[in-house]
Amino acid sequence: MKGKKVLILGVANKRSLAWAMAQRFSAAGAELFLTYQGERFQRELDKLVKDLPVIPKLAVCDVTREEDIAALGLALHEWGGVDVLVHSLAFAPPEAMRSEFSRATRQAFITALEISAYSLVALTRMAIPLFEARGGGSVMTLSYLGAERIVPGYHIMGVAKAALEASVRYLAYELAPKGIRVNAISPGPVRTLSAAGVSGFNKLLDAMPDKSVLRRNITPEEVAELAFFLAGQGGRPLTGETLYVDAGCHLMGA
Predict the structure, then answer these.
(1) How confident is the model over 171-192, as pLDDT tens digits?
(2) Whose C-alpha in 173, 215, 220, 222 is 20 to 30 A from the C-alpha of 188?
């Protein structure tokens, strides 16, 4: 990955899957550009990046603001383009995550879909000319089994992730002629900041050793390894896919 330019959105703290990916890409020699939302996350990033081999570029980006996405595009153009875009963003209002799906308000639904799914579309659209300038590239996002099956407690986020996976397929189809691949990674339960908002998350995590084929939990580093694979030569034939990193949990019927 030496000389490759990697944009990663969604590093919240040291437990973030996006942070595990940032470490993996950086260790392989990639140049990193990381975004944050607000001063709180900037302070966290400022502390984290000190441990990377090369200090990355940092920029604020609230994906609900078109002007932030446009400004990010200009900054990436000045940076020299992008080879890999990692979208690790998801959000739903806490009250929507605590209540039954049928009780989700219109605004909660719009917010969850906008940040968790539409942001991938908006960011990818922004990055198309940046990818083309470097001969193509790889886009990847993070999903979850709740997009495909009912996971009690996942509520509105399951619908948002289903929209995200459908977006991956349509983007992959449209962008293939431009040499841009788009895929989703679907990890098993990992203790992250966003996972804390899922009702009953600890039960999901504790059940993995019994419910998964490999009889164990997965690690952030294993998710990062798949992201690294998708960005490299081995991932070149893959696009429009949702790839599971869940120790085979998605294979089980009950």
Answers:
(1) 999 999 999 999 999 998 887 7
(2) 173
Q: Which domain holds residue 102?
A: 5-246
Low-confidence ranges of the chain (pLDDT < 50): none
Residue 228 lies in a domain: yes
Catalytic hit among 118, 144, 170, 173? 144
**Torsions phi, psi for 223 (to 5 deg):** -65, -40
Q: How many domains does the chain have?
A: 1
* Catalytic choice (118, 154, 173, 244): 154
* Rounded Cα distance, 184 and 168, in Å: 7
CATH of the domain at 35: 3.40.50.720
Whether residue 251 is contained in a domain is answered as no
pTM of the shown model = 0.93
Is 154 among the residues known to form the active site?
yes
